[in-house]
Amino acid sequence: xxxxxxxxxxxxxxxxxxxxxxxxxxxxxxxxxxxxxxxxxxxxxxxxxxxxxxxxxxxxxxxxxxxxxxxxxxxxxxxxxxxxxxxxxxxxxxxxxxxxxxxxxxxxxxxxxxxxxxxxxxxxxxxxxxxxxxxxxxxxxxxxxxxxxxxxxxxxxxxxxxxxxxxxxxxxxxxxxxxxxxxxxxxxxxxxxxxxxxxxxxxxxxxxxxxxxxxxxxxxxxxxxxxxxxxxxxxxxxxxxxxxxxxx
Length: 248
Fold this sequence. Notes:
Radius of gyration: 21 Å
Structural class: alpha/beta
CATH topology of the largest domain: Alpha/beta knot
CATH architecture of the largest domain: 3-Layer(aba) Sandwich
Strand order of the largest sheet: 3-2-1-6-4-7-5
CATH class of the largest domain: Alpha Beta
Shape: elongated
Number of domains: 2
Number of strands: 7
Oligomer: single chain
Protein backbone atom coordinates (compact mmCIF):
# COMPACT_ATOMS: atom_id res chain seq x y z
CA UNK A 1 0.00 0.00 0.00
CA UNK A 2 2.89 2.38 0.73
CA UNK A 3 4.26 1.94 -2.78
CA UNK A 4 1.56 4.17 -4.29
CA UNK A 5 2.18 7.09 -1.90
CA UNK A 6 4.04 10.16 -3.13
CA UNK A 7 5.63 12.69 -0.80
CA UNK A 8 5.46 16.07 -2.55
CA UNK A 9 7.59 18.95 -1.23
CA UNK A 10 6.64 22.34 -2.67
CA UNK A 11 9.21 25.13 -3.07
CA UNK A 12 11.65 23.81 -0.48
CA UNK A 13 14.21 26.52 0.25
CA UNK A 14 16.95 24.60 2.11
CA UNK A 15 18.49 21.54 0.42
CA UNK A 16 19.30 20.00 3.79
CA UNK A 17 15.59 19.70 4.49
CA UNK A 18 15.13 17.71 1.27
CA UNK A 19 17.84 15.26 2.35
CA UNK A 20 16.45 14.96 5.89
CA UNK A 21 12.94 14.41 4.50
CA UNK A 22 14.28 11.65 2.23
CA UNK A 23 15.89 9.96 5.23
CA UNK A 24 12.63 10.22 7.19
CA UNK A 25 10.76 8.69 4.25
CA UNK A 26 13.13 5.75 3.89
CA UNK A 27 12.91 4.84 7.59
CA UNK A 28 9.12 4.63 7.19
CA UNK A 29 9.12 2.66 3.93
CA UNK A 30 8.18 5.56 1.63
CA UNK A 31 10.16 5.83 -1.59
CA UNK A 32 8.52 8.25 -4.03
CA UNK A 33 9.76 11.82 -3.58
CA UNK A 34 8.48 14.68 -5.78
CA UNK A 35 9.99 18.18 -5.59
CA UNK A 36 8.14 21.25 -6.87
CA UNK A 37 10.56 24.04 -7.82
CA UNK A 38 13.17 23.43 -5.08
CA UNK A 39 15.51 26.38 -4.65
CA UNK A 40 18.65 24.18 -4.63
CA UNK A 41 18.62 20.61 -5.93
CA UNK A 42 20.64 18.51 -6.41
CA UNK A 43 22.93 19.79 -3.69
CA UNK A 44 25.71 18.38 -1.47
CA UNK A 45 23.80 19.42 1.67
CA UNK A 46 20.84 17.30 0.58
CA UNK A 47 23.19 14.34 0.08
CA UNK A 48 24.77 14.83 3.50
CA UNK A 49 21.45 15.04 5.35
CA UNK A 50 20.02 12.03 3.48
CA UNK A 51 22.47 9.82 5.41
CA UNK A 52 21.86 6.61 3.48
CA UNK A 53 18.74 7.67 1.58
CA UNK A 54 20.74 8.86 -1.42
CA UNK A 55 18.80 6.47 -3.65
CA UNK A 56 15.59 8.41 -2.92
CA UNK A 57 17.30 11.65 -3.91
CA UNK A 58 18.58 10.17 -7.17
CA UNK A 59 15.09 8.93 -8.00
CA UNK A 60 13.35 12.17 -6.95
CA UNK A 61 11.10 13.72 -9.60
CA UNK A 62 11.57 17.49 -9.99
CA UNK A 63 8.44 19.27 -11.23
CA UNK A 64 7.59 22.78 -12.33
CA UNK A 65 4.16 22.91 -10.66
CA UNK A 66 1.90 21.24 -8.12
CA UNK A 67 -0.30 20.01 -10.97
CA UNK A 68 2.67 18.26 -12.59
CA UNK A 69 3.63 16.60 -9.29
CA UNK A 70 0.07 15.39 -8.71
CA UNK A 71 -0.48 14.04 -12.22
CA UNK A 72 -2.25 10.67 -11.99
CA UNK A 73 -3.00 11.08 -8.27
CA UNK A 74 -6.55 10.30 -7.13
CA UNK A 75 -6.38 11.58 -3.53
CA UNK A 76 -4.19 14.28 -1.97
CA UNK A 77 -3.69 15.15 1.70
CA UNK A 78 -2.11 18.57 2.30
CA UNK A 79 -0.34 19.61 5.48
CA UNK A 80 -1.11 22.83 7.35
CA UNK A 81 0.47 24.12 10.57
CA UNK A 82 -2.42 26.49 11.27
CA UNK A 83 -6.17 26.26 10.98
CA UNK A 84 -7.24 28.64 8.24
CA UNK A 85 -10.47 30.09 6.98
CA UNK A 86 -10.63 27.69 4.07
CA UNK A 87 -13.48 25.31 3.33
CA UNK A 88 -11.55 22.01 3.21
CA UNK A 89 -11.92 19.25 5.80
CA UNK A 90 -9.13 19.24 8.42
CA UNK A 91 -8.17 16.06 10.30
CA UNK A 92 -5.41 14.81 12.57
CA UNK A 93 -2.75 12.43 11.20
CA UNK A 94 -4.28 9.51 13.14
CA UNK A 95 -7.68 10.20 11.52
CA UNK A 96 -6.41 10.92 8.02
CA UNK A 97 -3.84 8.23 7.27
CA UNK A 98 -6.28 5.27 7.27
CA UNK A 99 -8.41 7.24 4.80
CA UNK A 100 -5.38 7.87 2.59
CA UNK A 101 -4.49 4.17 2.65
CA UNK A 102 -8.02 3.28 1.57
CA UNK A 103 -7.33 5.12 -1.69
CA UNK A 104 -3.78 3.81 -2.15
CA UNK A 105 -4.65 1.10 -4.67
CA UNK A 106 -3.97 4.04 -7.04
CA UNK A 107 -1.44 6.87 -6.66
CA UNK A 108 -2.07 9.18 -3.70
CA UNK A 109 -0.02 12.05 -2.29
CA UNK A 110 1.10 13.81 0.87
CA UNK A 111 1.69 17.48 0.07
CA UNK A 112 4.05 19.66 2.14
CA UNK A 113 4.67 23.40 1.70
CA UNK A 114 7.71 25.62 1.95
CA UNK A 115 9.48 25.91 5.31
CA UNK A 116 8.59 29.53 6.12
CA UNK A 117 4.95 29.83 5.13
CA UNK A 118 3.70 26.35 4.25
CA UNK A 119 1.21 25.87 1.45
CA UNK A 120 -0.74 28.71 -0.10
CA UNK A 121 -4.53 28.58 -0.13
CA UNK A 122 -4.38 27.89 -3.86
CA UNK A 123 -2.04 24.93 -3.32
CA UNK A 124 -4.21 23.55 -0.53
CA UNK A 125 -7.18 23.78 -2.87
CA UNK A 126 -5.58 20.98 -4.89
CA UNK A 127 -6.13 18.57 -1.97
CA UNK A 128 -9.17 16.63 -0.87
CA UNK A 129 -8.21 16.79 2.81
CA UNK A 130 -6.02 18.87 5.13
CA UNK A 131 -4.02 17.50 8.06
CA UNK A 132 -2.89 19.46 11.08
CA UNK A 133 -0.33 17.83 13.40
CA UNK A 134 -1.34 18.57 17.02
CA UNK A 135 1.44 20.59 18.62
CA UNK A 136 2.17 23.38 21.09
CA UNK A 137 -0.21 26.17 19.97
CA UNK A 138 2.47 28.74 20.82
CA UNK A 139 5.08 26.98 18.69
CA UNK A 140 3.23 24.74 16.26
CA UNK A 141 5.46 24.77 13.16
CA UNK A 142 7.43 21.53 12.83
CA UNK A 143 10.61 21.19 10.83
CA UNK A 144 9.78 19.86 7.36
CA UNK A 145 11.59 16.56 7.86
CA UNK A 146 9.97 16.11 11.29
CA UNK A 147 6.54 16.56 9.73
CA UNK A 148 7.38 13.98 7.06
CA UNK A 149 8.56 11.60 9.81
CA UNK A 150 5.33 12.02 11.80
CA UNK A 151 3.15 11.37 8.75
CA UNK A 152 5.27 8.36 7.72
CA UNK A 153 4.94 6.90 11.21
CA UNK A 154 1.16 7.39 11.20
CA UNK A 155 0.97 5.70 7.81
CA UNK A 156 2.82 2.70 9.19
CA UNK A 157 0.54 2.55 12.24
CA UNK A 158 -2.51 2.65 9.97
CA UNK A 159 -1.02 0.03 7.65
CA UNK A 160 -0.53 -2.53 10.45
CA UNK A 161 -4.22 -3.43 10.56
CA UNK A 162 -5.13 -2.50 7.01
CA UNK A 163 -6.20 -5.13 4.50
CA UNK A 164 -5.73 -4.15 0.83
CA UNK A 165 -9.03 -4.24 -1.02
CA UNK A 166 -9.94 -3.38 -4.58
CA UNK A 167 -11.68 0.02 -4.69
CA UNK A 168 -15.40 -0.04 -5.43
CA UNK A 169 -14.96 2.95 -7.71
CA UNK A 170 -12.09 4.26 -9.80
CA UNK A 171 -11.78 7.94 -8.83
CA UNK A 172 -10.96 10.63 -11.35
CA UNK A 173 -7.32 11.68 -11.45
CA UNK A 174 -6.00 15.04 -10.33
CA UNK A 175 -5.71 16.37 -13.87
CA UNK A 176 -9.25 15.26 -14.75
CA UNK A 177 -10.69 17.06 -11.73
CA UNK A 178 -8.55 20.16 -12.35
CA UNK A 179 -9.81 20.21 -15.94
CA UNK A 180 -13.36 20.23 -14.58
CA UNK A 181 -12.62 23.13 -12.22
CA UNK A 182 -11.03 25.19 -14.99
CA UNK A 183 -14.03 24.48 -17.25
CA UNK A 184 -16.47 25.30 -14.42
CA UNK A 185 -14.80 28.61 -13.54
CA UNK A 186 -14.66 29.63 -17.21
CA UNK A 187 -18.36 28.81 -17.71
CA UNK A 188 -19.46 30.64 -14.55
CA UNK A 189 -17.52 33.68 -15.73
CA UNK A 190 -19.07 33.54 -19.21
CA UNK A 191 -22.66 33.31 -17.94
CA UNK A 192 -22.14 36.20 -15.52
CA UNK A 193 -22.46 34.20 -12.32
CA UNK A 194 -19.52 35.95 -10.66
CA UNK A 195 -20.96 39.46 -10.89
CA UNK A 196 -22.19 39.42 -7.29
CA UNK A 197 -19.96 36.65 -5.92
CA UNK A 198 -16.36 36.29 -4.69
CA UNK A 199 -14.96 34.01 -7.42
CA UNK A 200 -11.99 32.67 -5.41
CA UNK A 201 -14.08 31.95 -2.33
CA UNK A 202 -16.84 30.36 -4.37
CA UNK A 203 -14.41 28.10 -6.22
CA UNK A 204 -12.94 26.97 -2.87
CA UNK A 205 -16.39 25.88 -1.75
CA UNK A 206 -17.08 24.13 -5.04
CA UNK A 207 -13.78 22.30 -4.69
CA UNK A 208 -14.83 21.07 -1.26
CA UNK A 209 -18.22 19.99 -2.61
CA UNK A 210 -16.67 17.90 -5.38
CA UNK A 211 -13.94 16.56 -3.07
CA UNK A 212 -16.66 15.01 -0.91
CA UNK A 213 -18.33 13.54 -4.00
CA UNK A 214 -15.15 11.61 -5.03
CA UNK A 215 -15.92 11.97 -8.72
CA UNK A 216 -15.35 9.17 -11.21
CA UNK A 217 -14.01 9.91 -14.73
CA UNK A 218 -17.44 9.30 -16.29
CA UNK A 219 -19.02 11.76 -13.85
CA UNK A 220 -16.41 14.38 -14.71
CA UNK A 221 -17.28 13.90 -18.39
CA UNK A 222 -21.00 14.31 -17.66
CA UNK A 223 -20.45 17.52 -15.73
CA UNK A 224 -18.18 18.95 -18.42
CA UNK A 225 -20.79 18.04 -21.04
CA UNK A 226 -23.39 20.01 -19.06
CA UNK A 227 -21.00 22.97 -18.89
CA UNK A 228 -20.39 22.83 -22.65
CA UNK A 229 -24.13 22.82 -23.39
CA UNK A 230 -24.62 25.69 -20.92
CA UNK A 231 -22.00 27.77 -22.73
CA UNK A 232 -23.51 26.99 -26.15
CA UNK A 233 -27.02 27.84 -24.95
CA UNK A 234 -25.82 31.11 -23.43
CA UNK A 235 -24.10 32.02 -26.72
CA UNK A 236 -27.30 31.30 -28.68
CA UNK A 237 -29.31 33.50 -26.34
CA UNK A 238 -26.81 36.32 -26.73
CA UNK A 239 -26.86 35.99 -30.52
CA UNK A 240 -30.67 36.00 -30.60
CA UNK A 241 -30.80 39.10 -28.37
CA UNK A 242 -28.39 40.96 -30.68
CA UNK A 243 -30.40 39.99 -33.75
CA UNK A 244 -33.68 41.14 -32.17
CA UNK A 245 -32.23 44.46 -31.05
CA UNK A 246 -29.83 45.30 -33.87
CA UNK A 247 -32.18 47.97 -35.28
CA UNK A 248 -33.11 49.48 -31.92
